[in-house]
Amino acid sequence: MDRARADGTPWRPTAGGVALRVRVTPRAARDGVEGIEPTADGPALKVRVRAVPDKGEANAAVEAAVARWLGIGKSAVTLASGGKSRVKVLAVTGATDALVARLAALVGPGASR
Fold first, then answer.
1. Tell me: the pLDDT tens digits for 2-31?
2. Burial tier of 3 (Cβ tally within 10 Å: 0-12, 13-18, 19+)
3. Which residues, 6+ apart, have CB-to-CB distance to 26 below 8 Å?
4. Domain 11-107 maps to which CATH number in 3.40.50.2300, 3.30.70.120, 3.40.640.10, 3.30.1200.10?
5. 69, 71, 107, 108: which could join 33 in a potential S-S bond, CB 3.0 to 4.6 Å?
6. Can you say whether the dihedral through the CA atoms of 78, 48, 67, 10 is positive or negative?
């Protein structure tokens, strides 16, 4: 994924959906997506999960939380890179234009939720 998106979004269209950069906080009080925050790799969606980063539990929880937030099936969201890092890239499969529109609507004008 490019280091910094010119439009300030943490996603980019791909052939079969979107690539979505996320910054994960494990061991949180609750699961959820909380807007966009800057990272060294560029903007990322802030995702908090209750799971601990052990044996892929947090990664699975991140996939589930993002799928729930987007209103799509869990199988449509998979880890593409960053398995042991807080900053990860998720592959979200589906109609690219619809996913981009949904992401833009969810993060809103201020990009904070």
1. 444 457 899 999 999 999 999 999 999 999
2. exposed
3. 49, 51, 52, 53, 58, 61
4. 3.30.1200.10
5. 69
6. negative
